[in-house]
Amino acid sequence: FQIKKELIPELKKRLNTLLNTLSIENTSKEYIYIDAEATLSELVHSENIHALAQLHPYGEAHLPPTMLLKNFEIKELKILKDKHSKLILKKGSDELCAICFNKILDEDQIRLIAGSPFVNTFNNSLEIKIRDVR
To answer: How far apart are CA 53 and CA 20, in angstroms?
Structure first.
């Protein structure tokens, strides 16, 4: 948005007033900000794989995008080293690998996936690093 320079003090005053009236019941919740929603077929499209590879390098001020993935089936769920979950997601003929580090997932709890897509340089395929599931 745009604001005239002379109105910035008034904006600060109004925002502070608004913030002081809000009550946050549970500040221990972690929120995940979703950059975009996607389907499996959208993610695995070759143009998108190429575009995602161009977003590097990531760092503290430049985080990887977080996507909300929905409308998929779980073809396979493996537990790796008794603490990581690896999934093969499927929709039609499209498949995508997803990995969740330091958490064992139960197939019944997975309907939505929030995660960051990345190109696995070992086999040059797109995968998802899972941040959370619902």
So the answer is: 42
